[in-house]
Amino acid sequence: MPRIAFSFPISDEASFFAHYDILTKRPTSGNIFDPTNYQFMESRNVIISNPDLKPEKTIDYEIGFQQVLTKTSSVKVSAFYKEQRNNVQLMNVFQAYPNSYRTYGNRDFGTVKGTTISYDMRRTGNIRMTASYTLQFANGTGSD
């Protein structure tokens, strides 16, 4: 899947960066078809595997700015947005023949948006420090 990233210096001490990603993930293969699940569906509370699951997809954007403060320290500020589609969720199928059952489906959708501020101080004497603060807000359609 495509990834576009670029960074360019504004001056000797400042730079601007951004990226755009599309990531995909195959559904887990732990739910292999088992014919006994269908034979004993009425007596067991089983989860039937779904061979029609789509890959989970994440679209990610980030834009930021980095500034040198001193010879040994810098600060970075960035904002990001992430969209997650086709997330796998357990779902109930009611009034199916011969019995209601549970299966996995691509039902969940979520977004994450936020900002990060980072401070990096390179080794000065015997001290090195990295501090970061992230504020993010996440929403989803199938989250509890």
Question: What descriptive keywords fit this protein?
Answer:
mainly beta, elongated, seven-stranded mixed beta sheet, 144 residues, single chain
**How much strand?**
over 45%
Could you describe the largest sheet, including whether it forms a barrel?
A: 7 strands, mixed
Query: How many distinct helices?
Result: 1
Strand elements, count: 7
Taking Cα atoms only, what radius of gyration do you get, to the nearest Å?
Answer: 23 Å
In which range does the helix fraction lie?
Answer: under 10%
Give the H and E element order: EEHEEEEE
Q: What is the general shape?
A: elongated
Please specify the SSE layout and strand pairing:
Elements: E1 3-9, E2 14-25, H1 35-39, E3 47-48, E4 56-70, E5 73-93, E6 101-124, E7 127-140
Parallel strand pairs: 3-6
Antiparallel strand pairs: 1-2, 2-4, 4-5, 5-6, 6-7
Explain how this protein is built.
The chain has 144 residues and is mainly β. It is 3% helix and 66% strand. The chain is built from one helix and seven strands, in the order ββαβββββ. The chain has one helix at 35-39, and strands at 3-9, 14-25, 47-48, 56-70, 73-93, 101-124, 127-140. Strands 1, 2, 3, 4, 5, 6 and 7 form a seven-stranded mixed β-sheet that branches. The longest helix is centred in the first third of the chain and has 5 residues, at 35-39.
In short:
This protein has 144 residues and is mainly beta.
